[in-house]
Amino acid sequence: EQLANQIAAGEVVERPSSVVKELVENAVDAGSTTIDIVIEEGGLTLVRVTDNGSGIDADDIEKAFFRHATSKLSSSKDLFRIASLGFRGEALPSIAAVAKVECVSAVDTSGLGKRLVIEGGTIRNVEDANTPQGTDIAVRDLFFNTPARLKYMKSIQTEIGHIADYVNRLALAHPGIAFTLKHNGNVLLRTLGTGDRLQAFAAVYGTTAAKAMLIVSGDHPDYTLSGYISKPEQTRANRNGITIVVNGRYIKSYIINQAILQAYHTLLPINRFPMIVLELGMHPSLLDVNVHPSKMEVRFSKEAELRQFVEECVAKALGKQRH
Ligand code: ADP
Ligand code: MG
């Protein structure tokens, strides 16, 4: 079990941003409306995520740190129609195998909750705790017991860069959630959680960029699409300004990126990329999210059709602007 956890840990926990990703996804899955993320030293000394979601039942808090103890999946068929972000029940045990974790949680406002301390996969303490509704997980000294892995970590600047990029995208994907991201005491991101996606965009990229966005929308028997795209003169030097959300999940998709860039074809200076936040809706049977352990890549069953639809919608939005 300990070994299985360490092996899984290698897959799930590559670097501090993986910890942030797993904890924040759990907070989203728990229906939270506020998620506070506190990072110290690029996440190597502390990643702490506090949410106001449904919490972990006192009787289940130890179980949450056992492998495959997910509460989110009832049959393997569900893998194909998954709506929640996490579903493999590997994240918490994997993180706990390679760090020192303190988890405090309560399922209601009674103030009755539990605190669990687990280090390197060994439970150190479980006790009653007076805590507000929601979950507060602090992950300290990541890779303290796997020095070889620790050596591979890049600079603090690089690690916080990965973390900020991820949290920014998630904030865009979930404009109804108020996110705060702090690093070494500095606020890197604060969104209001009003549900206004353009407002979330402004929090991430600035109000000037937000003012220069065009609305994109489209309808199709299989898909719905809505969001914002930048005018061709408002570009960036990399693709990090492109955020794709499918059925409420932030995902990565080569196919959709290609469709977008194709629509901008000839409009963009060389090596410049647009800023985009696109939300796609489709029946869950049209996508498979279980392609990669990190669960970011998805595969679509009607790729060509989807690609054409996205390209047409983006081109239409760009065309309107030129007239
Ligand atoms: P998964 O997300 O794949 O189910 P995890 O290891 O990430 O597995 O989490 C294990 C379980 O712990 C979840 O299924 C959920 O029941 C519970 N859990 C974890 N984090 C939270 C949270 N922030 N709020 C409520 N429940 C949580
Ligand atoms: Mg999870």
UniProtKB/TrEMBL annotation:
Domain of life: Bacteria
All residue ranges annotated as the DNA mismatch repair protein S5 domain in the record: 201-319
Family as reported in the entry's similarity comment: Belongs to the DNA mismatch repair MutL/HexB family.
Cited function: This protein is involved in the repair of mismatches in DNA. It is required for dam-dependent methyl-directed DNA mismatch repair. May act as a 'molecular matchmaker', a protein that promotes the formation of a stable complex between two or more DNA-binding proteins in an ATP-dependent manner without itself being part of a final effector complex.
Protein name: DNA mismatch repair protein MutL
Organism: Paenibacillus aurantiacus
Gene name linked to the record: mutL
